[in-house]
Structures are given as C-alpha cells and as structure tokens.
Amino acid sequence: MYKIIDGQKIEMTAEEISAHNSWSETEEQKLQKIKDLRLDKLMETDWWVMRGNMTEEQSTYRQKLRDIPADYDSSKYDELLARDSDGKLTHIVWEKP
User: Fold this and answer.
1) Fewer C-beta within 10 Å: the chain N or C terminus?
2) Which ranges of 6-55 does DSSP label H, i.e. alpha helix?
3) CB neighbours (10 Å) of residue 3?
4) Cα–Cα distance between 85 and 17 in angstroms, integer?
C-alpha cells in the first residue's frame, strides 16, 4: 500500500498498513453514506416526477429508496454499501426499473 506525501507516492510501513486495515467506519458514518446515495438516486429520478406520468415500477423504486432507513437496520449497512469490481453498487434496492 502507498500514501501520497507532498505529491510523492511512498510505500506505507507495516505499522501504517496495520493501522489502516484496523480502521472501520462507524454505523453513523455508514448510514450517512447510505442517505447520501439515496438522495443522489432520488435526485437522478426527480424528472420522472416532473414528467407527471411515472410508472408503477418507478414509483415503487422511489418509495423503496425513501424507506431504506426504516427497512434496513445497521446489520445490513455493509450489504447496502457493497460494490462490485467496477465500483457499481450491488444491492438490489439501488437498481432502477
């Protein structure tokens, strides 16, 4: 692993790597990421609402996004934030109709 100092790529020490690997996000930080993603997805689909003729699937998708905090407890946060090798979110709740 590497770090950037003054624009230079420097290899991390074993101690730095260990400290980096032991760091984990709090549940509050994960929930905030989820809420930010949800807001982005809702904003991406606001035009569906403005258009005035949303399909049932589109309406259901937006409602499921709004319900995420109530439908998923902290034990599911990692699943909601999981990404594939291309960086794409993998949980079904994020998939647009």
Assistant:
1) N
2) 14-22, 27-44, 46-51
3) 13
4) 22
Is residue 23 very low, low, confident or very high in pLDDT (cuts 50, 70, 90)? low
What residue type is 58 in one-letter code?
Q
Write the pLDDT tens digit of every residue in 63-93: 999 999 999 999 999 999 999 988 899 999 9
Answer whether 97's CB lies under 8 Å from 48's CB.
no
Show the tokens assigned to 37. Answer: 């993603």
Rg of the Cα trace of the chain?
A: 18
How far CA 21 is from CA of 25, 64, 76, 89, 95, in Å, comes to 11, 33, 21, 22, 30
**Per-residue pLDDT at 14:** 87
- Token duo for residue 90: 């993998």
Domain map (residue ranges) of the chain: 25-94
Q: Please tell me the number of Cα atoms within 13 Å of 25 on its side-chain side.
A: 12
